[in-house]
Amino acid sequence: MSPNSPVRRVLTGHDAAGRAVVYADEGIPMKILPGGDAGFALLWTTLSVPADNNEEIDGGARDVGLAIDEGTVLRVVDMMPGRSSPMHRTNSVDYGIVLSGMVELLLDDGSVTKVRQGEVIVQRGTLHAWRNPSDSEVCRIAFVLVGATPATIAGQRLPPIEP
Questions:
Q1: Number of structural domains the chain divides into
Q2: How many angstroms from the chain centroid is the CA of residue 39?
Q3: Rounded to whole angstroms, how far apart are CA atoms 66 and 45?
Q4: What is the pLDDT of residue 8?
């Protein structure tokens, strides 16, 4: 895999007779963020949980922020070598699967946790950032974000903080 290479998405559905079919088999390009810290490939979204399998829109074509409060987001992120994200928090449970490379999870308490290829992060509405400590290797991570009730501490809901 080269840095920022497209992500293959195979999208299934049904034909008029109810048989399973492949609707699309395509490469979804990475969109490089301003500043060049990362590339994002948005693969799919839903507006609700449970999702509606009868919806005809391409869920990857929605214009979304980081998360959808009552839905889901599937994206692949390429963290560039030596770069980091801003601190942020979403009202979601995020499943992050490191596909290649290594990333550091930075929390607002100052802790740093290294997560390597094949390992998984479960992010539960916390304030966090990502950093790729490598000088040369892109870190590719698949993220599934599921809308969730905001974390509440001492009776106060923690608000989302988008970069």
A1: 1
A2: 11
A3: 11
A4: 97
